[in-house]
Amino acid sequence: MVTGGASGIGRAVAAAFAAAGDRVVIADRDEDGAAAAAGEIGCAAVALDVTDAASVAAGAARAAELAGPVEVLVNNAGVVAGGGPLTALPLEVFDTVVAVNLRGTFTVTQAVANQMVEHGTKGRIVNVSSIGARQPTAGLGHYEATKAAVDALTRTAALELAAHGIRVNGVAPGPVHTPMTAGLMDDPQARAAWEARIPLGRIAGTGDVAPLVLFLASDQAAHITGAIVQVDGGQLLT
Length: 238
Prior knowledge:
Helix content: 40-55%
CATH architecture: 3-Layer(aba) Sandwich
Number of strands: 7
Distance between the termini: 35 Å
CATH topology: Rossmann fold
């Protein structure tokens, strides 16, 4: 199950799992977008709003009905919702980002982890974080704070769920060309400024992130848990 799978990184991850022969469920609050992506990829879709605990419970149950108990969860749903210095950031922007990125990751993890434990599933959870959790960018403090919290949840969940055979890891991309960042990518000056911070010299595509998610969810990563792995072209080195 991939949250926020209707577009961007989530869609690429869902497509990669489907191409590998896995049963995939896209979970997204954009019901039409999820259905369209699922139709193109060849998988199932459920309506799920990560900010609503009842919606999460219903969506996780529906995913199990469609494809069997969830074995792999990818917590990808996330927003930026705006930007600006902390001294001027509207409180509603902060609250929205916390609700989706932090509370949403917690709520979906809780629901699906309980499902895994109930069914005796030695599952895998992969959380999509950001290098912003470790490298600040002015104007994005609200977003980066939630991603730092997601990293903390990842480590705690890995510790608590290990006894059930459930592994929990994270991927931390730098900037990625997605619909959420389209405005930035279409601004030559802004794009050049970001690329100047990246030793490998380019903004990532979704295809740079998806393989790592699949690896962490695979048996090849059987002894990896509690790790957050960056995919940033070396940006954290600068």
